[in-house]
Amino acid sequence: MAIREMNTQEALDIPQQRTANEPQDFPEPAPLASHGPARIIAMVNQKGGVGKTTSSINLGAALAAYGRKMLLVDFDPQGALSVGLGLNPYELDISIYNLLMNPRLDPHEVIVETEFDNIDILPANIDLSAAEVQLVGEVAREQVLARALSKVADEYDVILIDCQPSLGLLTVNALTAAHGVVIPLETEFFALRGVALLVETIEKVQDRLNPSLEVDGILATMFDSRTLHSKEVMSRVTEAFGDKVFETVINRTVKFPDASVAAEPITSFAPKHAGSEAYRRLARELIARGGAP
């Protein structure tokens, strides 16, 4: 896929719903009469730095603000999701690693209630890096996470899994447990190159382990409307994946790292910022598409 320079007219001809600051809006969802069973969504991309953790935190917070009871699963040994919600991974006595290694462990002993309404977390730390090796010899090793989450799925509306930047056994576990996949994709050419491999992995999991798995959508992140490069990549993504691409686009802004340092979602850190509205819009779009209750 060769990237060439666009002239000004070509840039203007790119569909505006993909590049404008205010794409199509979606209706505010109705409140839920009851909670559960959860729809499980894996946030997956084997490339690092594309906004998986940022999107997990902020999409989770936006859904929670619409009354959805959320469980966020930190499935990355770096523990960035845990840090982003105010936990210190080095101080954890018990984490999702223990849940994977001990099938008799009650998930409620690991789940932490955060200070944010409707958001609980299954935290992780560096211990999780050992799980990939230790699970290799286990029977049905791809289904360990699914078995653990099944014990609490009825208590939540959405379970959102923040995966590590890898297509290894942990990510396969997340895909096997999930009903849907959201793929954050940085609007940069090299980010496009790994999507074919990711889609191939998803198709293998669908074929062999989880026939009900579906791609909920591809989320364009770190979009910069000032550059022709971002616009052309956005155009190529839309051409390749059509309506699988979310209408909502997440623009690049320094507010996201600022919110991460403050250990809170941007929706509470800067509720009136455009980034907050983008994730609220994404939550509405996901619900409208049927990707969340």
What does this structure look like?
This protein is of the alpha/beta class and 293 residues long. Helix content is 39%, strand content 16%. It has 14 helices and eight strands. Strands 3-4-2-5-1-6-7-8 form an eight-stranded mixed β-sheet, with helices on both faces. Helix 3 packs across helix 14 (274-288) and helix 7 packs parallel to helix 8. The chain is globular, with a radius of gyration of 18 Å. The model is unreliable at 1-21 (pLDDT under 50). Residues 1-22 have a biased composition (Polar residues). Residues 39-215 form the AAA domain. InterPro entries: AAA_dom (IPR025669), DNA_Partitioning_ATPase (IPR050678), P-loop_NTPase (IPR027417).
